[in-house]
């Protein structure tokens, strides 16, 4: 029993490490953000479809649910485009530090979706995040485009996560992910046809390294990661999973410093700001768990 628990904790941290490695692949892939996300969603969708067929998962859903999944797919595609473009406009460290602000946005988006009031500590932690972002921006003004794109990506990510939180109550993560990937590909295909001059030979002419990195991104960092986290949550509490995933920027920034020291070494203000943002995210997860525990305890009395 103890060995099984340890195995699942190890699996969880491998998944978090994989999430952090996504940004590294975004730096290594040389094509633009829109084709990058198009390839990612197409390849991940195909791999997910094979998994669905192998596991004999039922894909049938009603039209209303289908439309909701399609809308969520557009949001996740825009989140990934802005995230990878933030890396290309600045660097991995900036993109991941800004991505950490997602918890701040979620604190204000969640009450709207779940019809609850904003609690006092969310406002305080939100102020901490704003101060952290200010420190990062003030110290790294040359990366302002990447900072703005990173913040937009974090906002879209939070919106996507909260919406998916309402879906997961009724549908499997595999089915949700498959339809969202399908929707993202359809949306980006239409966008490329209407605004980017369509598909030409150049679009499909990629270097061997780009094909390898894209396959790793779509298979390991997307399809496997989506399925893996669902499996882990059967044995580990959602709180532990969320808290562990808050380490994604830490792993990603550490990897970036190790692999790209020339472009990823930042000024002291960046690290002060990033630490403040990450601290607020960790505190948010801890305080939410404490409140949840107290609520459960009150119900038992």
How would you describe this protein?
The structure is a single chain. Helix content is 83%, strand content 0%. The two termini are 31 Å apart. The protein has 14 helices and no strands. 38% of the residues are buried. The protein has helices at residues 2-28, 33-55, 63-89, 92-99, 102-114, 120-139, 144-167, 173-195, 201-204, 208-232, 238-245, 248-259, 261-264, 268-300. The chain is an all-alpha fold and 301 residues long.
Secondary structure elements and pairings:
Blueprint: H1 2-28, H2 33-55, H3 63-89, H4 92-99, H5 102-114, H6 120-139, H7 144-167, H8 173-195, H9 201-204, H10 208-232, H11 238-245, H12 248-259, H13 261-264, H14 268-300
Question: Gist?
Answer:
This protein is an all-alpha fold and 301 residues long. The protein contains 14 helices and no strands. The mean pLDDT is 88.
Shape: globular
Distance between the termini: 31 Å
The biggest sheet, with number of strands, parallel, antiparallel or mixed sense and barrel status, is: none
Q: Tell me the number of strands.
A: 0
- Compute the number of helices: 14
What proportion strand? under 5%
- Give the rounded overall mean pLDDT: 88
Low-confidence stretches: none
Q: Which structural class is indicated by helix and strand composition?
A: mainly alpha
The topology string of helices and strands comes to: HHHHHHHHHHHHHH
Cα-based radius of gyration, to the nearest Å: 19 Å
How helix-rich are the residues, as a percent range? over 70%
